[in-house]
Specification:
This protein is mainly beta. It has one helix at about 70-75, and strands spanning about 10-15, 20-25, 30-35, 40-45, 55-60, 65, 85-95, 100-110, 115-130, 135-145, 165-180. About 5% of the residues lie in helices and about 55% in strands. An eight-stranded antiparallel beta barrel has the order 1-4-5-7-8-9-10-11. A hairpin with a 2-residue loop joins strand 8 (about 100-110) and strand 9 (about 115-130).
Length: about 180
């Protein structure tokens, strides 16, 4: 039986300068990585960590894969359709401890108006003070989704093969720091 991780109860907000929300997708014979630079979120921790909650909203127009033309295509109706669906949201529905510092955060991920339940394998990295007099927590979380389940099914066949240009599975990785609110 593992010991429960102790975290100060309270409301924590994501620190955008110390948080990255990124993804990886198969493309042709390699992988493309990207991230979102605009987001906000809060974590509410409770004495009983199972009663804690997470809510994050990502501005999909801030996608950054390092290639402007690709980012513009990803904003289009072929993919995120940001004019009609400008945000992606995650709202937790449960938190369960899975080891000394490992958790599973279950929640509803909404992309293009489609919500699906996902599980984030989450590692608690610690809690401590910062140089500015605040208190921070750090977590790292990962999950994998099917983009088709969210209505994102644009693809192109690769000439001379039975393969498609873009993979269906998207690996999502989050490395976050949040600051305790007074």
């Amino acid at each position: 039986m593992s010991t429960a991780t102790a975290v100060t109860a309270g409301t924590w907000t994501l620190d955008p300068t110390h948080t990255e929300i990124g993804f990886t997708v198969r493309h042709l014979i390699g992988k493309v990585r990207g991230k979102f630079t605009g987001f906000e979120g809060a974590v509410v921790t409770a004495a009983d960590l199972g009663s804690s909650s997470v809510k994050v909203e990502v501005d999909l127009s801030t996608i950054d894969t390092g290639t402007a033309a690709r980012d513009e295509h990803l904003r289009s109706s072929d993919f995120f359709e940001v004019e009609s669906h400008p945000t992606m949201t995650f709202v937790s529905t449960g938190v369960a401890q899975n080891g000394a510092s490992d958790f599973v955060v279950t929640g509803d991920l909404t992309i293009r108006g489609v919500s699906r339940s996902v599980e984030l394998a989450t590692e608690f990295l610690g809690e401590g003070g910062d140089p500015w007099g605040g208190t921070r927590v750090g977590v790292e979380a990962t999950t994998q989704i099917s983009r088709r389940e969210f209505g994102i099914d644009f693809n192109m066949p690769v000439e001379g093969s039975d393969k498609l240009m873009i993979g269906d599975k998207i690996s999502i990785h989050i490395n976050a720091q949040a600051v305790l609110q007074a």
